[in-house]
Amino acid sequence: MLGKKNREMSENLGTNLLNNIGAGTSVRGDISSEGDLRVDGKIEGNVSVKQRLVLGEIAIITGDLDAMNAILSGVIQGNVKIKETLLLKSSCIIDGDLETNKLVIESGAQFNGKCNMNSTEKAPEDKNSGKEARKEK
Question: Disulfide: which of 9, 49, 88, 104 matches 92 by Cβ 3.0-4.6 Å?
């Protein structure tokens, strides 16, 4: 019984975690988080977050970013890949490519790179496309 309870707790742990890298803190190396992550310091390395990333106004990330959702106010020098929703606040500066499903950009936000919007829904097929292909044969 105790083993089952501990296993269930560890499986659910990722959804309740909130990690912070505070202002004045610098980290060198890759970071991986099972829960949410708030960054107000500086990171030199890739960041992978299973839940939501919040990047404060004075935060700087030099490396690639991968997360489920993100609210970005600071500076990122690297590529950004967000599976669901990406919000760029007015103070955000990104030098790199974006890949996301939904993108919200506040006035004043800057991003230099290309953007690829991935939709999880398939576009509806044109009903005439199959008929036209048959006529051409």
Answer: 88
Phi then psi dihedrals of residue 119, to 5 deg: -100, 135
Please list, in sequence order, all residues whose beta carbon lies within 8 angstroms of the beta carbon of residue 9, skipping any fewer than 6 positions away: none
Give how far the C-alpha of residue 112 lies from the chain's centroid of Cα atoms, to the nearest Å: 17
Give the 3-state secondary structure of the chain: CHHHHHHHHHHHHHHHCEEEECCCCEEECCEEECCEEEECCEEECCEEEEEEEEECCCCEEECCEEEEEEEECCEEECCEEECCEEEECCCCEEECCEEECEEEECCCCEEECCEEECCCCCCCCCHHHHHHHHHHC
Q: Write the pLDDT tens digit of every residue in 35-70.
A: 999 999 999 999 999 999 999 999 999 999 999 999
Query: Which of these, 14, 11, 40, lies nearest to 27 by C-alpha position?
Result: 40
* pLDDT tens readout for residues 89-110: 999 999 999 999 999 999 999 9
